[in-house]
Design brief:
The protein is an alpha/beta fold. The chain contains nine helices and twelve strands. Bound molecules: zinc ion.
């Protein structure tokens, strides 16, 4: 646990929140995506719902793995995302040592992905940067800022993560759980955007606090809500808006079954697990 003055934000560079101009002189609205997992039907619904509401798209990793449309997803990310970091599934399909950590279902999907990716998309995914990545005064990370493979599930786990953050605001993924954590003068609390069950749920960001924010998973939500998850960060309004959007789950499931991927990867999509 952090020693010292609990009122002082624990990061080394104790800067304030991003100024609102994204460093470009204009107000920027960011579409933040994570854990797309080769689910084109889910990504397509997110793109349609968010169209016109953002200026720049960002991705916190796991473009591929589990789903049956890795090339459609990677094509869109390549063409449309201003900053992208890798997730563990973006590494695993080509790295024996990483596959060893996967369960048989995830391993099967990873090996299938390696065969399905075009050489251009394989090269793109292979070259993705490891987080944390600094973008316009905030950071992108897949797992935690000290370990890209670490699952930040609880406020207790997030306490350490805040000590490693170099900015007051960071976006992460990996858990497939929309929400995140707030550092508020030494206390770390969980953000639960879905507790009232309606969207969008808007959270103002306060310059005295710190934020680890998870947009949730586009392609394989695990919080019991099967709808695709994403968020928009409005730097001018200093607000995070959490969204969910229904998509064509049946087609995504059919594509997975037709590809010969493990059927459980199709079944879980309709349950959001
Ligand atoms: Zn993932």
């Amino acid at each position: 646990m952090k020693q010292g003055n609990p009122d002082v934000f624990p990061v080394a560079a104790r800067q304030g929140l991003p100024s609102g101009d994204g460093g470009t002189g204009t107000l920027v609205r960011y579409l933040v995506l994570s854990d797309l997992h080769s689910n084109w039907q889910a990504l397509e619904a997110v793109i349609a719902a968010a169209a016109g509401h953002y200026d720049r798209a960002l991705c916190c990793g796991d473009l591929v793995g589990y789903g049956a449309d890795p090339n459609a997803v990677v094509d869109w990310v390549r063409a449309n995302c201003a900053a992208v970091i890798r997730g563990n599934h973006d590494r695993a399909w080509k790295a024996e040592e990483d596959l060893g950590w996967f369960n048989p279902v995830a391993r099967h999907a990873a090996l299938w992905t390696g065969r399905a990716l075009t050489s251009e998309n394989a090269a793109y995914v292979t070259a993705l940067a490891k987080g944390p990545l600094l973008v316009d005064g905030f950071q992108l990370t897949h797992g935690s800022p000290y370990d890209e493979d670490e699952y930040m599930m609880s406020a207790e786990e997030a306490v350490l993560a805040f000590e490693y953050l170099e900015t007051r605001l960071a976006f992460f993924g990996h858990t497939h759980l929309q929400g995140g954590f707030i550092w508020n003068h030494g206390r770390v609390e969980t953000i639960s955007p879905f507790w009232q069950g309606f969207y969008p749920d808007l959270m103002r960001v306060d310059g005295d606090c710190g934020y680890l924010v998870n947009p949730g998973s586009v392609g394989q939500p695990r919080d019991g809500d099967p709808r695709a998850a994403y968020l928009i960060y409005d730097s001018g309004a200093a607000a995070v808006e959490y969204y969910r959007v229904a998509y064509d789950v049946e087609t995504a499931q059919r594509r997975i079954r037709e590809a010969g991927l493990p059927p459980i990867l199709a079944d879980r999509l309709s349950e959001g697990r």
